[in-house]
Amino acid sequence: EKFAKAAVQLVHLNLTGCQIGGQGLRLILKALVDGESTENLLRLDLQNNNISLASDSFSYIGHFTNLRALDVSRNCFTLDTSAQAKIFRAGLAPLTSLQILSVAHNKIMDKGCKFVCDIVREHYPALRILDFAGCFLSKGCLPVFEELLEHVKSEEPEVDPSRRPSLDEEEYSYIPELVIELESTTNPEL
């Protein structure tokens, strides 16, 4: 409780490699929620732990609505059941300001890839980096990525063609593209 009260100004929480499981994640995030430390958290690094979608602990992430970057790479995620998909959606759906999402090196596979891309299309207009490196994907995901990129392209703001964009102008500070990272994939077919 003391930690949660002191964490009100917490902007970045890095729990990389702490071997946290579902119970540990639930305790940490619940303490932050109970201590009203959800407003300022912009980045949450949970990579290289033992977090799975077998329990509802992941849904606590949804309380951090201002989160801009979430890294859950190298955990125990699979998205091959509707129950896991429901927990994943409950955790991510409220995070409409998310700009970076890494699910790299989890056993997401094609079915999970489609599910993640559908969530991105529905909820994340600000997302700019989506990392699927090492997620056991096949060529079957290419149409899913193409569809997602087309959707992002169709959501780009109108720009007056008579003006050349200047990097200093606030009007052009919006980056109208999504980068999908696939390097280091463990499936040689992709």
TrEMBL record:
It holds the Pfam family LRR_6. It comes from the Eukaryota. GO terms for cellular component: cytoskeleton. It is found in: Cytoplasm, Cytoskeleton. InterPro entries: DRC5, Leu-rich_rpt, LRR_dom_sf. The keyword Cytoplasm applies. Keywords: Cytoplasm, Cytoskeleton. PANTHER family: NLR FAMILY CARD DOMAIN CONTAINING 3 (PTHR24107:SF2), YNEIN REGULATORY COMPLEX SUBUNIT 5 (PTHR24107). This is Uncharacterized protein. It comes from Spumella elongata.
